[in-house]
UniProtKB/TrEMBL annotation:
It comes from the Bacteria. Keywords: Amino-acid biosynthesis, Aromatic amino acid biosynthesis, NAD, Oxidoreductase, Tyrosine biosynthesis. Residues 18-295 form the Prephenate/arogenate dehydrogenase domain. Its EC number is 1.3.1.12. One of its GO terms (molecular function) is prephenate dehydrogenase (NAD+) activity. Pathway: Amino-acid biosynthesis; L-tyrosine biosynthesis; (4-hydroxyphenyl)pyruvate from prephenate (NAD(+) route): step 1/1. SUPFAM superfamilies: 6-phosphogluconate dehydrogenase C-terminal domain-like, ACT-like, NAD(P)-binding Rossmann-fold domains. Belongs to the prephenate/arogenate dehydrogenase family. It catalyses: prephenate + NAD(+) = 3-(4-hydroxyphenyl)pyruvate + CO2 + NADH. One of its GO terms (biological process) is tyrosine biosynthetic process. This is Prephenate dehydrogenase. InterPro entries: 6-PGluconate_DH-like_C_sf (IPR008927), ACT-like_dom_sf (IPR045865), ACT_dom (IPR002912), NAD(P)-bd_dom_sf (IPR036291), PDH_C (IPR046825), PDH_N (IPR046826), Preph/Arog_dehydrog (IPR050812), Prephen_DH (IPR003099). Residues 303-373 form the ACT domain.
Length: 373
């Protein structure tokens, strides 16, 4: 985790102190619990589902909450459609505590709380940009926040001490706090999270009626673009409904782009058609260039693909020999070939290191493949 502090016993000292009450023992709530318990923070778990609560406790995410608890911090990790209700209840029950929520939409619950006249002095909405396709306490992991942005939505009335508590929580979990307004946050996640979910789901939906032979041709590219299509429909109905306006704005613009490409391909020999397609691909190149990479750098890497036998220890040997060659692995993707006893390891390295890596690995007996499409 970032900015670590080590005690004499070798355990990093947490910025978060006292009891942390986590309401909602699903994926995010239980993951927060695991991370804080790893720092010896007292975590009191509460959940509307007794079974979910028992499961999270059994996995070590915390202890069951007690009526006598006096939490310094409350983290609300419940489905979007009940965030406002739970935040209101927690603020009234624990007026001295700082209350934050980790919902992926910030503006709708804030409006609901203001309309109810709730005192929001000690409430700070936040959102860790982290998660997995599968939910529930059984999927929780202490490290899912490491290196991820954690948006904190403060206003002019937020006490500095309360802000420090929420940002301290994010830092304890290895995340990077970023301050945004609720409006900025909701527009941003519409573009980088909510619409990509819909696009992945729509594309994967085309596979339902596809011939089996067609799907056997699927490579890593299509798997990458549809990975998040495995997400839970029930949760996404709530998220998309709560952030509908910004999502629709992006979808409308995307629909215009799709219509333009479709029209160009409908008449590929027409003047300007090929340029329209090329400009679409080039603009995508430009957009990818803007995505922060490793350590937040706006930097593209080059790739090589190595054939790896499907036997124990081969991937470790590959990494070891790359290290001997002085080549640092910036990123890695694995793809197994259907029916074959080998996999393809696509390794990203700094520009200029590809040739050296390929020649060095080939000299050591590795087979270099072309980039998968």
């Amino acid at each position: 985790m970032t900015d670590s502090i080590t005690t004499g016993a070798g355990v990093r000292a947490a910025r978060t102190s006292g009891t942390v009450r986590v309401v909602g023992a699903g994926l995010l709530g239980a993951s927060i619990g695991h991370a804080l318990r790893g720092l010896d923070v007292d975590v009191a778990l509460a959940d509307a589902s007794p079974a979910q609560l028992r499961l999270a406790v059994d996995y070590g995410a915390g202890r069951p909450a007690d009526d006598g608890d006096d939490p310094a911090l409350i983290v609300v990790a419940v489905p979007p459609d009940v965030v406002a209700d739970v935040v209101e209840r927690e603020l009234r029950a624990h007026p001295r505590a700082v209350v934050t929520d980790v919902a992926s939409v910030k503006l709708e619950p804030l409006h609901a709380l203001r309309e109810r006249g709730v005192d929001l002095t000690h409430y700070i909405g936040s959102h860790p940009l982290a998660g997995r396709e599968r939910g529930g306490a059984i999927s929780a992991r202490a490290d899912i926040f490491v290196g991820r942005p954690w948006v904190v939505c403060r206003d002019g009335e937020t006490p500095a001490a309360d802000l420090a508590v929420v940002e301290g929580l994010a830092l304890d979990l290895g995340a990077t706090p970023l301050e945004m307004t609720p409006e900025e946050h909701d527009r941003a996640v519409a573009l980088v999270s909510h619409v990509p979910q819909l696009v992945a789901s729509l594309l994967a939906g085309r596979f339902v009626d596809a011939a089996d032979g067609s799907l056997r041709l699927a490579g890593q590219g299509v798997r990458d673009t549809t990975r998040i299509a495995a997400s839970a429909p029930e949760l996404w109905v709530q998220i998309l409904g709560a952030n509908a306006e910004p999502v629709v704005d992006v979808l409308d613009a995307l629909a215009d782009d799709l219509r333009g490409v479709a029209e160009a391909l409908r008449h590929p020999e027409a003047p300007g058609a090929r340029r329209a397609v090329a400009d679409t691909i080039r603009r995508g190149n430009d957009g990818v260039e803007r995505l922060p990479g490793k350590h937040g750098q706006n930097r593209r890497f080059e790739s090589l693909v190595v054939m790896v036998d499907d036997t124990p220890g081969q991937l470790g040997r590959l990494f070891g020999e790359l290290g001997e060659l002085g080549v640092n692995v910036e990123d890695l993707r694995l793809e197994h070939s259907p029916g074959a006893q080998f996999g393809l390891a696509e390794i990203s390295v700094v520009p200029g290191a590809v040739r050296h890596a390929e020649e060095g690995l080939a000299a050591r007996g590795w087979k270099i493949a072309s980039l998968p499409s």
